[in-house]
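Many introductory courses stop at the sequence. We go one step further.
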Amino acid sequence: QVQLVESGGGLVQAGGSLRLSCAASGHMFSNYAMGWFRQAPGKERKFVAAISWSGSYTYYVDSVKGRFTISRDNAKNTVYLQMNSLKLEDTAVYYCTAGSLPTPRGYWGQGTQVTVSS
């Protein structure tokens, strides 16, 4: 079992930045690929980014490429999502996940709200 707790969400103006963090506890964090998904109001949950267990490989949905960066610190059992140049359409609940590439879905956090205002 892996427990995931997200933090770092909030309200930010368009063009601004936020960094989400996800602290993991439980079994062998470094064995898992990690990911981020998001769910906008009234829409289905969608994949955003993923990172391999070593951090050597990263994957992004096209809409965030060049703006978002996923990273991990296995010594701290933490994965991050640096979000720059935020847009209104980035508003969503962001979920941290653990599992297998390319879109880790085995374990989910409770989510953190990101709201981008104009």
